[in-house]
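User: Hi! I'm working on a homework problem where we have to compare a predicted structure to a textbook description. Could you give me the structure for the chain below?
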Amino acid sequence: MGDNRELIFKYKNSRIIFNAITVICLVTMVFLRKLPTRNNLTAILYVIFFSSGMIFAIAQIYAFITKKYKKPNLTIKKDKIIFLDDFFMNSNKIKLNEISKIYIPEYDNIIEIKLKNHRRRTISLSHYKKEDRQLIKEIFKDMQEEIV
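Assistant: Happy to help. Predicted structure tokens:
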């Protein structure tokens, strides 16, 4: 484990469904706006489509920004592991001397790290490419040998 590794998720799902829902909400919102609002049902439908359309539009903007300025989700250095997760892309650092045990199941796409303060950190490998999964497992097997 001589060099640093930076690994980024490969997104499997496409954004076609997400884009279609956004367009449907926004188009329906425009058509409902032209109808007279004397009817209570029309006003309720307008509010529902407006709020869901705005939520999807904001989510689209967030997805675009995070894709454009993407940082590595997993950085493995000689002395620490850096995870980038959560909605706000917080980074969590684990130093190598804090790790007490690394569990790597053969047929599962997770790696479980047990720390010396009895906390556990699970890394899901399902978002990575197959080659990256194998590489990550090999790196953590090397780390496991160093720890033991």
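For your comparison, note the following. The chain has a mean pLDDT of 76. Residues 16-68 form one domain. Good luck with the assignment!
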